[in-house]
Amino acid sequence: MYLTRGARDALAKLDPSRREALRDGFGRVGLQLLSSAERVGVESGSARGTWPHRRYPQQCYAKTVRYVLDHPEIKGTRLVHGVVSHAPHFLPLDHAWVELPGDVVFDGVVQTFFTRSSYYSVMAAVALDAYSAVATRRLVDTHGSPGPWNAKWVPTARQLEAYAAAVRMRQGVRIAAPLSVNVGRNR
Q1: Of 42, 29, 45, 64, whose CA–CA distance to 114 is shortest?
Q2: Could you give phi then psi for residue 137, rounded to 5 degrees?
Q3: Model pTM?
Q4: Which parts of the chain fold into alpha helices (H)?
Q5: Are 68 and 136 in contact (CB under 8 A)?
Q6: Under DSSP, is residue 29 helix (H, G, I), strand (E, B) or coil?
Q7: Mean pLDDT, residues 47-69
Q8: Beta-carbon count within 10 A of 117 CB
Q9: Which pLDDT band holds residue 1 (cuts at 50, 70, 90)?
């Protein structure tokens, strides 16, 4: 697991029990995705620069931008900013991933390629924005960061309910309580 320097510094300042709880949480990053989604083999050029045995918690924007900018030869690549969550509570969080030709998705946090349909299903993914490689380069240069670059997802109670409805429709899942009720609660 590879944390940014800022995350490591913040973790070091916590009391030992909180530090261990967060470290444990970071260690679980991607486990549901890796155990449930269908992985895909890709050509060596597409896999160039990826590290499939490493995890990069809280670095989805940086790792996906790096992938898109490092692979300009892959025509039709799209950087996607959206929202994901996991059962049973489906509390949504911002996330970034890369969509490649052939219905393949690259997740920068777990450094692995998946079928698009299994990725969207396991992650309860809802795309909000998509960027070509050219647009990605322009936005990185303009903003000086890997994103997000758009404030569509705040989230408001209305956005949370719309997300829940989209997840329910796609997966036929019943969420125990409205998402706006779940937000901020430890369960």
Answers
A1: 42
A2: -60, -45
A3: 0.80
A4: 5-12, 16-27, 31-36, 44-47, 60-70, 116-123, 133-143, 157-171, 179-182
A5: yes
A6: coil
A7: 94
A8: 12
A9: low
Is the backbone peptide bond immediately before 16 cis, with ω within 30 degrees of 0? no
Residue 95 · residue 20 · CB < 8 Å: no
Q: Is 96 left (phi over 0), alpha (psi -120 to 50) or beta?
A: beta
- Tell me what pLDDT residue 13 has: 79
Are 79 and 98 in contact by the 8 Å Cβ rule? The answer is yes
pLDDT in tens, 144-180: 999 999 876 667 788 878 887 877 777 665 444 333 3
Supply 178's token pair. 């409205």
State how far the Cα of 124 lies from the Cα of 160, in Å rounded to an integer.
13
